[in-house]
Design brief:
With 422 residues, this protein is of the alpha/beta class. It has helices spanning 5-10, 15-34, 43-51, 56-66, 81-86, 102-106, 115-125, 130-134, 145-154, 171-192, 198-221, 231-241, 246-266, 291-297, 312-315, 326-337, 349-361, 376-391, 408-421, and strands at 71-74, 90-93, 137-141, 160-163, 276-282, 301-307, 366-372, 396-401. Helix 3 (43-51) crosses helix 12 and helix 11 (198-221) packs parallel to helix 13. It is globular and about 60 Å long. Bound molecules: Double cubane cluster.
């Protein structure tokens, strides 16, 4: 990796502690990713992004700030990036996916908090992630209780705007979300000094839809009997989608899909015939959380679809591009985002319908419902998810895990036994 020490120091990071993360990440990436055989050449781009994860993109964001631009850090797929980009600002995902940051979060949060929240708070307070230092404003949301309260702690350290996300999907809730997006637009305009015009918003709607279409195209390729790409590689791409430049990401992902189209034509598969096809559902897998994919794909399975926020929930459904005035555009944005099916909503039966639909479309042999420890919304919803799958005759395994490796062996045993029985 190029030398970014000076940049990290200027960001006020704890560079010595951060060095420890820089030491372990390449090894972990090599073990999980570079050890795979017959990877598509198009993965070189994503390998490069990861190898320079705390360098290249942060440097671009800083460049943008030097020109007077703002950076917004987000934690949830309900926060509409379109508004941010329409104000000539940049949105970047901030969810923490490494155990490295968890102890920092535990200094201020109860230990029985979900690791995603602990890692996200720890990354900020310990000053060990450049993205958390760079973001000028954090955008939280009222999804789960843990996140809701974490914003209050983070707000002591950085400007935070919280979007009030309804928890039901009645007509009045969609209207309330529309109003909330209008308020967010005002916050973004005041903070950046740039007006969000209907022309700018039309451009950013196209930009973000482009990213969604590229991801959808990638996922469609996984419906083939011969899998042209591993689940691990697709997970990495989904994770990178949250913070890469959207136009470049779309271009590189479409380029990769061109290569995968050829593989499909030629019947190339990265898995042996008979490898069991697994759909994963549950809580998001923030970078660098590759644990479950790695275990499945080294235990006789292939992950062919993720019904997750690092998966289908991120890209399904487009914002209507035909609206031309601001009110109608914001209404279209509100409707698209309210179509996401997070367990924070009640009822959330649409998610179960999606899982069963995907299980058929991707021709899966089994489903693994994987939830982060202490995430009660997904854990409770797991009962209904697993019941519906059993009724549909689709084998399902429920797993609860965190960011540590302490349960890896036990998980491997359970997953191997599940795959064997399929
Ligand atoms: S839309 S899944 S990104 S809220 S895993 S922090 S819910 S305790 S991340 Fe999420 Fe938005 Fe929903 Fe997706 Fe809370 Fe659960 Fe932790 Fe979670």
């Amino acid at each position: 990796m190029a030398d970014y020490r000076k940049m990290w120091e200027d960001l006020g990071m704890d560079v010595d502690t951060h060095d420890q993360l820089c030491e372990v990440l390449p090894q972990a990436f090599g073990d999980v990713y570079l050890s795979q055989e017959n990877r598509p050449e198009g993965m070189d781009y994503y390998n490069f992004v990861v190898s320079e994860i705390h360098g290249v993109r942060p440097a671009e964001l800083i460049e943008h700030q030097k020109k007077g631009g703002k950076v917004f850090g987000t934690f949830c797929v309900y926060v509409p990036d379109e508004i941010v980009f329409a104000a000539d600002a940049i949105a970047t995902g901030l969810c923490g996916g490494s155990q490295f940051w968890v102890p920092g979060g535990e200094k201020v949060l109860p230990s029985d908090t979900c690791p995603l929240i602990k890692a996200s708070v720890g990354a900020r307070l310990d000053r060990t992630c450049p993205f958390f230092r760079i973001a000028d404003m954090y955008v939280g949301e009222t999804t789960c209780d843990g996140k809701k309260k974490a914003w209050e702690i983070l707000a002591e350290d950085v400007p935070v705007h919280v979007m009030d996300l309804p928890q039901m999907k009645r007509e009045k809730d969609v209207r309330a979300w529309e109003e909330e997006i209008k308020d967010f637009k005002k916050v973004v305009e005041d903070f950046t000094g740039n007006e969000v015009t209907s022309e700018k918003l039309a451009e950013s709607i196209k930009l973000i839809n482009g990213k969604r279409k590229a991801l959808k195209r990638l996922y469609e390729l996984r419906k083939n009997e011969n899998l042209p790409i591993s689940g691990k590689d697709v997970l990495l791409i989904s994770q990178i989608a949250f913070y890469d430049d959207p136009a470049r990401f779309t271009e590189m992902t479409n380029k990769l899909c061109d290569e995968l189209d050829k593989r499909v034509e030629e019947g190339v598969s990265v898995f042996e015939k008979g490898t069991k096809r697994i759909l994963l559902t549950g809580t998001p897998l923030a970078i660098p959380n590759w644990k479950i994919h790695n275990i499945i794909e080294t235990s006789g399975g292939a992950v062919v679809c993720e019904e997750m926020c690092t998966g289908t929930r991120y890209f399904e459904n487009l914002v209507d591009e035909t609206q031309t005035d601001l009110d109608s555009q914001i209404k279209a944005i509100a409707e698209r985002y309210m179509g996401i099916k997070c367990a924070c909503f009640t009822p959330n039966t649409g998610r179960i319908d999606d899982i069963i639909k995907y299980a058929k479309e991707y021709n899966v042999d089994g489903v693994i419902d994987v939830n982060l420890k202490f995430c009660s919304t997904y854990a409770v919803e797991g009962y209904l998810v697993e019941k519906a799958l059993k009724e549909a005759g689709i084998p399902v395994l429920g797993i609860e895990t965190d960011y540590t490796d302490s349960d890896a062996q036990q998980m491997r045993t359970r997953i191997s036994a599940f795959i064997e029985m399929l």
